[in-house]
C-alpha cells in the first residue's frame, strides 16, 4: 500500500507504519485491492493528507468510509470526482452551505479546493469494497485515524473539528476541547437531515468565526 502524502505529516505518522496493527492492515488492504474492486484508487487512499499539509491545517471534517460506487471516491471524505453527480449527503452539505453563507451549489462535488486551504477531509476508514459500505471497518484504519486525531490535538491549537453524526462524535474523546473547537450536528445523510438533525447547524459560518477569533484565515467555502 503506497503511502502518498504531504511531507509535513511524515515526522508525526512515520512510526505508525511499522506497528503490528498497521502491517496487518497493509496486508489486508493489498489482498483486497488484488482480489476485489475497492475504492478509492490505491494511489488516492491518502489524498486527505496529500492535499492538506500539517502546517496549513485549520479545520477537520470526519467522515465514515469512502463512497462505494464506481468512480465516486477520491480519498477526501464526502468528496467525489469531477463529473460525478452529487451523492445525497454531499447535496445536503451544499444545501446547508447555501443557506448558511449564500454560496450557490457548485457543479463539481470535488472538495480538493477545501483541502488545499487546510481542511482535512478524513474518513475514519480509508478504503472500502465496491458496493459494500463498511466492508473495511475494524481492520485497523480506525486505530490509524485515531492516532491522526490525537496527534493533531496534541501538536496544534485552535483547530475546528466538525463532527457530523454519531460515529464522528465518538472521536471527540481524542480531542482536547480546551485547545480546540468542536462543532457537532447530525449527519448530512437524508435519514438524519430529514429528521431535522442537519439543516440549520451553520457549521461553515461558525467555523470561520472561530478561525477569525483565533487570528487565523477563514475558509473560502
TrEMBL record:
UniProtKB keywords: Cytoplasm, DNA damage, DNA repair, Hydrolase
PANTHER family named among the record's database cross-references: URACIL-DNA GLYCOSYLASE (PTHR11264:SF0)
HAMAP family referenced in this protein's UniProt entry, alphabetically: UDG
Subcellular location as annotated: Cytoplasm
Entry annotated with the keyword ATP-binding: no
Documented EC number(s): 3.2.2.27
GO cellular component: cytoplasm
Function: Excises uracil residues from the DNA which can arise as a result of misincorporation of dUMP residues by DNA polymerase or due to deamination of cytosine.
Gene Ontology molecular functions: uracil DNA N-glycosylase activity
Pfam families: UDG
PROSITE patterns documented for this protein: U_DNA_GLYCOSYLASE
Domain spans labelled Uracil-DNA glycosylase-like: 49-211
Transmembrane parts of this sequence: none
BP-aspect Gene Ontology terms: base-excision repair, AP site formation via deaminated base removal
Family: Belongs to the uracil-DNA glycosylase (UDG) superfamily. UNG family.
NCBIfam families with a match to the protein in the record: PRK05254.1-1, PRK05254.1-2, PRK05254.1-4, PRK05254.1-5, ung
Name of the protein in question: Uracil-DNA glycosylase
Keyword Mitochondrion among record annotations: no
Active site residues of this protein: 65 (proton acceptor)
Catalytic reaction annotation: Hydrolyzes single-stranded DNA or mismatched double-stranded DNA and polynucleotides, releasing free uracil
Lineage: Bacteria, Pseudomonadati, Bacteroidota, Flavobacteriia, Flavobacteriales
